[in-house]
Amino acid sequence: MKAFLRSYWSPILMLLLLAFTMMVGNTADFRVNISLLILVVFGFVFLIQWLFQKKKIAQLQAINTQAELSLLKSQVDPHFYFNTLNNLYALSNRKSEKAPEMILKLSEIMRYVIYKGNEKEVSLKEEIKYLENYIELQKLRFQDKVEINFSKNGVSDHLQIAPLLLIIPLENAFKHGVDSIVKDAYININLTTVKQQLFVEVINNFEEEDKTETTGGIGLKNLKRRLQLLYGNDYEMVINKEKNEYKFQLLIHLK
């Protein structure tokens, strides 16, 4: 209640001051003063109700926004985990030395998704480490089929970002790029920060017969909605598809 009064003391004080001024000006008429007092009381009650309703609406909007964000995060593509488990099973049957490495990378990824994925923000370096683990697992899966280049420039310790954002364009590059190509697939990832600005670019090739929409399907639509909820107008996302190359670009002003 104290916090509420501190937040809205100005209109309440103005209403009380107005009532006092009007009553002082009509000291000779008791009935007028009583009427004014009743009107002020009703006005005060109405104001309090309106302010409480306004606060309640803001709280509900915040709850709905958080619920929507949680739902969108839960829609991160699960096929990666199924594919990784299948590959792990195959490596185990062959008694491959790569199996323990794959288990370790997968456990780190799942730990990040379960624990860090529920946080409002994580360090940009943690998000990058998550991407690197994902890439290493995909390299074990595709081996020499794909060439992956990941360049990072200007990443500092203090920058924070919402978790599980940057994985979506990378998943998209594998799903609609590498999976559709027999050989000579490539993915180039560029991540650059300048002060509070984060620029991310993911470029991949694909077979020209691929019918993927420029928007990239549900994954990128979910990403766009999450960016709107989290960063408002402080981001730009551009997607281009020309011939057999797909280019995703994202600019975010990190807070």
From TrEMBL:
The keyword Signal is assigned to this record: no
Residues covered by the Signal transduction histidine kinase internal region domain: 67-145
TM spans (from-to): 12-28, 34-52
GO cellular component: membrane
Pfam families xref list: His_kinase
Keywords from the UniProt entry: Kinase, Membrane, Transferase, Transmembrane, Transmembrane helix
One GO MF term attached to the UniProt entry: phosphorelay sensor kinase activity
Keyword hit for Protein biosynthesis: no
Family annotation (InterPro entries): Bact_2-comp_sensor_kinase (IPR050640), HATPase_C_sf (IPR036890), Sig_transdc_His_kin_internal (IPR010559)
PANTHER family: SENSOR HISTIDINE KINASE YPDA (PTHR34220:SF7)
Name of the protein in its database record: Sensor histidine kinase
Species in which this protein is naturally found: Leptobacterium flavescens
Lineage: Bacteria, Pseudomonadati, Bacteroidota, Flavobacteriia, Flavobacteriales
